[in-house]
Each structure stands twice: as structure tokens, then as C-alpha cells.
Design a protein that fits this description.
By secondary structure, the chain is of the alpha+beta class. It folds into two domains: 3-133 and 319-330, 3-Layer(aba) Sandwich (NADH Oxidase); 147-310, NADH Oxidase. Helix content is 43%, strand content 17%. It has helices at residues 24-35, 74-93, 124-129, 147-158, 170-189, 191-202, 210-220, 226-239, 253-272, 282-285, 287-297; strands at 47-52, 55-60, 96-102, 108-117, 163-166, 242-248, 276-279, 302-310, 328-330. It has a five-stranded mixed beta sheet with strand order 3-4-2-1-9. A four-stranded antiparallel beta sheet has the order 5-6-8-7, sandwiched between helices. Strand 1 and strand 2 (55-60) form a beta hairpin. The longest helix is centred in the N-terminal third of the chain and has 20 residues, at 74-93. The structure holds flavin mononucleotide. Flavin mononucleotide (FMN) is lined by residues 39-43, 75, 78-79, 82, 134-135, 137, 206, 211, 278-281, 319.
Length: 332
């Protein structure tokens, strides 16, 4: 895929343009304009949508796999989950019911069957945030997220069999910060990891985010950025108003997709409260550090996603995307 074809214009979707009277196929293609606004690791947009008669199959885009950062595709499947949930929320907004199926084997990772009309008001609050949400890399201010909001976020996760845990204890935060420092250093020690990150930064996918401004040039010029990133990220963890971990009972492909679906619901719900979110994946990318996170926090299941939540003044620019048409084909 040509990086030059990525654009920020995708964020301007006009809900009034929904083709209510058109064919289901045209409606699906309109809804996919929302799905591509989902977050994904390195903004790799690892989705391919296959449109059939009343359904959308979601497959992994092999050429956009992060083979160094995410060799077993765990983050990829979270990203697919984010897109699946965005599509589902958009469909509900226009009164189209959906049933989501996930598959642990085979090229189709998830299938969304569009069904009979549903109450269009369900998830309306989340829908409004699809074109607003973004990942904020800056330090967050303000008090911890209120218990009421946290309960709401927990419910979004629980509805998908995903557990949300907030890490409040100072000692636990410090241990997570130590793990982050180690994971950042080890990841940056890998030339393949640095090359892959540099390629995505160079493609413009990460936009003018803090990452690009901070480490973009340094990564490309092979400076030793791990310790710098590690210290900065450990401080972000220590100072985060709220730090959350999502976990699942086991580590199947379907559970990873559901963890991604849960994260997108949470990011949208947080955005509706004027809160920003920021994932930190390096610990989870390293099997030993991921196991340590599990034992440090006493998590029964498998940790899937670590992220900060908090308030911050002003907005960051949206990152670009390949338009929906470029990642959509028709089922044969
Ligand atoms: C599974 C997953 C892992 C991510 N890991 C990180 C991370 O480690 N560090 C980071 O700064 N952002 C991380 N992100 C955020 C992405 O970089 C971001 O979603 C992407 O660049 C698109 O930008 P947007 O979220 O502003 O639309 C992650 C997102 C997902 C879905």
C-alpha cells in the first residue's frame, strides 16, 4: 500500500450522507468509512474488509503485520477488534443490527452479520466520538478518573468478557514503571524493531505525534533511544491520573479481538467524558515482561492492553488513514 495514499480527509465523514435508501452493499461501504478510524499499533491499520451479501469479513493484512514488535499478531488482533467494534457502533447508529462472530483459526478473524433493524439510539454517545477520538501522547493532568466513570469503563469491558483493572497502588505503579523501562530498552536494542518503527514513522502513519517529534529522527539515525523513551514512559506511568490494564481469561485470537473491541469502547467512552487515552505496549510485546506484569499485578488471566487515561488541554492532530475503499474487497 502506498503511504502517500494515507489521508486525514477520512476523519470528515458526514453522518447525514448515510445512504438509507440504497443497497445493503452501499450501506456497508459507508459504515466502513467509520471502521478505518479505529486505533491500531503503529497506526499499521492491519485490516482488510471483505464485503459479502449482508456481512463483512475482517482479515489481517499480511503486508502490514508488525513482525518485529508483534511477531505473534497479538496487537494486530487487538487492532482488528477496534475496527470491528467501530463498525458495529456505526451500524447501530443507523439502525442496522449486527452480530459479531470471531474465529480462532482461518483467514477470517471476525465476521459481522448485518441483521434486522435495531434501536438506533443504542451506543449513540460512543458513535459521536468515533470522529473525535485520538491517542494523546502528552502527560495528562487532573484527578484520577471518577469511580462512576471507571465503573462505566469496566462495564464496557465486562460486556465482552474482558476485565479492566486500574493500577492505583504506588508500589505497583513503580513496578510497572520498572518493567516499562526494561521493555523499552530491550525493544530499542533490537535493530529489527527500530527499523520497523522508523519505517512506520517515515511513512507518515504516526503523524506529527509526540513520538515522531521526540524519537523519529533519533530512531532513524540509530541513536540509543531505549533508555530515554523508558524514562519518559515510566514517568508517564507514575504520573498518570489513571492507569488501566485489560485482561482476558485465556489468550485466544477471539479473546484478543474482544480486548480490542473493549479498548475501543473504553477510548470512545473516555473521549465522551473529555478524557484522553494512551496505550503503552512494550511490556506486553515481550513475553518475560508480560509474565512479570501479570504477577506484579496479581492478574488471573492474560494481560492484553496497558493504557493511561486522563485529561489534557487542547487537542492533537488526527493521524492519517488509508481510505476504506483501499482496504475493502468483494467476497467471491
Ligand atoms: C493494540 C494497540 C497498541 C498500541 N500501542 C501503543 C504504544 O505502545 N505506544 C503509543 O504511543 N501508542 C500506541 N497505540 C496507539 C496507536 O499508535 C494509535 O492508535 C495510532 O497511531 C493511530 O492514532 P490514533 O489513535 O490517534 O487514531 C496502540 C494502539 C493499539 C490499538
Amino acid at each position: 500500500m502506498d503511504p502517500a495514499a494515507m489521508t486525514r480527509d477520512v476523519w470528515r465523514v458526514d453522518a447525514d450522507a448515510y445512504p438509507a435508501g440504497a443497497s445493503v452493499d452501499e450501506q456497508i461501504r459507508f459504515l466502513l468509512r467509520y471502521a478505518v478510524l479505529a486505533p491500531s499499533s503503529h497506526n499499521s491499520q492491519p485490516w482488510e474488509f471483505v464485503v459479502g451479501n449482508g456481512y463483512v469479513g475482517v482479515e489481517a493484512a499480511e503486508e502490514r503485520r508488525l513482525s518485529a514488535a508483534d511477531p505473534d499478531g497479538r496487537e494486530l488482533h487487538l487492532g482488528l477488534g477496534c475496527a470491528v467494534e467501530t463498525l458495529r457502533i456505526a451500524a447501530h447508529r443507523f439502525g442496522v443490527g449486527c452480530v459479531v462472530h470471531t474465529f480462532d483459526e482461518g483467514p477470517t478473524v471476525a465476521r459481522i452479520d448485518l441483521g434486522p433493524a435495531c434501536n438506533p439510539h443504542r451506543d449513540g454517545r460512543l458513535f459521536d466520538e468515533i470522529t473525535e477520538r485520538y491517542t494523546d501522547h502528552r502527560p495528562f493532568d487532573g484527578p484520577p478518573v471518577s469511580e462512576a466513570v471507571l465503573d462505566d469503563l469496566r462495564e464496557h469491558a465486562a460486556s465482552l468478557d474482558v476485565a479492566l483493572r486500574s493500577v492505583d497502588d504506588a508500589d505497583a505503579r513503580e513496578s510497572v514503571g520498572d518493567l516499562q523501562r526494561r521493555a523499552d530498552r530491550l525493544q530499542a536494542d533490537s535493530p529489527a524493531y527500530r527499523r520497523e518503527l522508523a519505517a512506520w514513522i517515515g511513512s507518515g502513519a504516526l503523524g506529527a505525534s509526540g513520538l515522531r517529534a521526540r524519537v523519529g529522527r533519533a530512531v532513524v539515525t540509530h541513536l540509543d533511544v531505549g533508555p530515554v523513551e523508558g524514562r519518559r514512559n515510566a514517568k508517564l506511568i507514575a504520573d498518570a491520573p489513571t492507569l488501566c490494564v485489560l485482561s482476558t481469561a485465556d489468550d485466544t485470537r477471539g479473546e484478543r479481538v474482544n480486548a480490542g473491541r473493549a479498548y475501543q469502547r473504553i477510548a470512545l467512552a473516555a473521549s465522551a467524558e473529555g478524557l484522553a487515552t494512551h496505550p503503552l505496549s512494550q511490556i506486553l510485546e515481550r513475553p518475560a515482561e508480560r509474565r512479570s506484569l501479570r504477577s506484579v499485578l496479581g492478574i488471573d488471566g492474560r494481560p492484553q492492553h496497558l493504557f493511561r487515561v486522563g485529561a489534557v488541554e487542547g487537542r492533537q492532530e488526527h493521524t492519517p488513514r488509508w481510505p476504506a475503499d483501499a482496504v475493502t474487497s468483494t467476497a467471491r
